[in-house]
Write a structure and sequence with these properties.
5 strands; about 180 residues; about 15% strand; alpha/beta; 8 helices; elongated; about 50% helix; 5-stranded parallel sheet
């Protein structure tokens, strides 16, 4: 059995090397503009020297919010998905978020597994593509407390945040147009 890796360099080590309190290092990591220039330089030098990487999971335990957005799509092979994912990544990274991506190969069982795994990490938001999902997946999403955005093909009823087209409605409109002309 593999042993879980543990972070060797801690926030306290950075604080000690920089000659500041751990709370000052924490503030610098969360809101660097609120820490004085000279102190910021000492903290960043300690971070660089020690190779410190901030533990965002630990921050969530102390009341912080996740800075992760997840997107679940049916296929990475579709160029339309790739283009939109790139646009989403650009927008969320500008706001300080990281993007996680999952592709379920058009398998609703795999989609459910991936969404469950993503929700275990408490993302700030999750976006899902399509209108077809297992009832158990929908229940899990609705009870998670995580905001959900439904993209591409939408059904108009399941989620309050929807971006895309209702293919069924478009089909009916096209058929009505053709029969009326």
């Amino acid at each position: 059995m593999r042993q879980r890796s543990r972070q060797i360099v801690k926030l306290d080590d950075v604080a000690h090397q920089a000659g500041v309190s751990p709370s000052t290092v924490s503030l610098y990591i969360r809101q660097p503009d609120r820490v004085a220039g000279k102190t910021s330089k000492k903290i960043q030098a300690a971070i660089d020297d020690l190779g410190y990487v901030h533990n965002k999971i630990a921050s969530q335990f102390t009341g912080g919010r996740s800075c992760n957005m997840a997107v679940v799509i049916p296929s990475l092979a579709n160029v339309t998905f790739s283009y939109v994912i790139q646009r989403i990544e650009s927008a969320v990274s500008e706001q300080g978020f990281q993007l996680s991506l999952a592709s379920h190969d058009h398998s609703l069982d795999k989609e459910e597994e991936q969404i469950r795994a993503i929700l275990e990490w408490s993302p700030a938001v999750i976006a899902i593509a399509g209108a077809d999902h297992k009832a158990s997946t929908l229940k899990m999403l609705q009870n998670s407390g995580v905001p959900v955005v439904q993209m591409w093909q939408v059904d108009g009823s399941t989620f309050s945040a929807q971006i895309g087209n209702n293919q069924e409605e478009i089909g009916y409109s096209a058929a009505r147009y053709l029969t009326d002309t």
